[in-house]
Amino acid sequence: MPASALLTVMTNAARKAGRGLARDFGEVENLQVSVKGPGDFVSAADHKAEDTIYAELSKARPGYCYLMEERGLIEGPDKSHRWIVDPLDGTTNFLHGIPLFCISIGLERDGEMIAGVIYNPIMDELFSAEKGRGAYLNDRRRLRVAARKDLSNAVITTGIPHRGRSGHDLFLRECPQVMRESSGVRRTGTAALDMAWVAAGRFDGYWEHGIKAWDMAAGVVIVREAGGFVSDAEGGNEMLDKGSVIAGNPHIHKGLVKILADA
User: Fold this and answer.
1) Which end of the chain is more exposed for a tag (fewer CB within 10 A), N or C?
2) In terms of DSSP H, where are the helices of 124-182?
3) Is there a single domain that holds both residue 16 and residue 117?
């Protein structure tokens, strides 16, 4: 399906920022492995990507509000629309030369996610969706969540809390339960791509706690437009506020909600 004017704006912004990230990614292996050097470099790459996205979106849709990882909340005269942007999801992967990272751009209208774009510039894979228009990969292939109904055949992805993050004890209760019930558990290091890959049927389900709105905003609409369910950990619709998310087809989603509740 040809992209709408709205998705064209979002796609152009993601691809332009992605070209810069791809160039910077090529320099990562040349960096001295130290806390200060690579950390500062990645921070600069992150800010450059966000600057590009902000400029492109502001030019095309002046007046919209923003919630961005680096800039935070930016108020605009149009209170009904808000861009939710992560310019580099998967920073640790980027730093280590692992080609699993992405740009995530979501658009919220009156509190509801209505459009999303997730772009991995290294693989040149762009996942996009607009409410009521379906979800697509590179504007060509229609995305559908996997059809598996039984958790015993499902591959589930998640995020693992690391040093400096809370939730270790909760994860150590939940993960063994999912491991016992599923065909496998994976960890990519990027929440946005986890959700995009659920929409594409590569993963059957996904859950995570302690993430930000910009990590999942675009993924919410992409998974839903691919036929999937997305909720917070309790099965409600407050993902962006609570910072927890469960995604999958209706059967896998229901199974994960039950398992995590029991844990």
Assistant:
1) N
2) 168-181
3) yes
Token pair for 143 = 């995305």
**Angle (nearest 5°) at CA 71 between 69 and 76:** 115
Amino acid sitting at position 94 = F
pTM for the predicted model, two decimal places: 0.93
Matching residue, tokens 């930000």: 212
Q: Which residue type sits at 90?
A: G
Residue 47, CB half-sphere, CA atoms under 13 Å: how many? 7
Mean pLDDT, residues 230-258: 96
Domain count, the chain: 2
Q: pLDDT-based confidence at 41, cuts 50/70/90? A: low
Within 8 A by CB and 6+ apart from 73, the residues are: 65, 66, 67
| 111, containing H or E segment | none
By three-state DSSP, how is residue 75 classified? coil
Q: Is the pLDDT of residue 52 over 90?
A: yes
Phi/psi at 54 (nearest 5 deg)? -60, -45
Q: Do 38 and 108 fall within a single domain?
A: yes
CATH of residue 245's domain is 3.40.190.80
* Domain ranges, residue 217: 151-262
Tokens 């992409």 map to which residue? 222
Look at residue 31 in the predicted model and tell me its pLDDT: 55
Strand segments (E) across the chain = 64-68, 72-74, 78-89, 102-109, 112-120, 125-130, 135-137, 141-142, 155-158, 184-186, 205-208, 229-231, 245-248
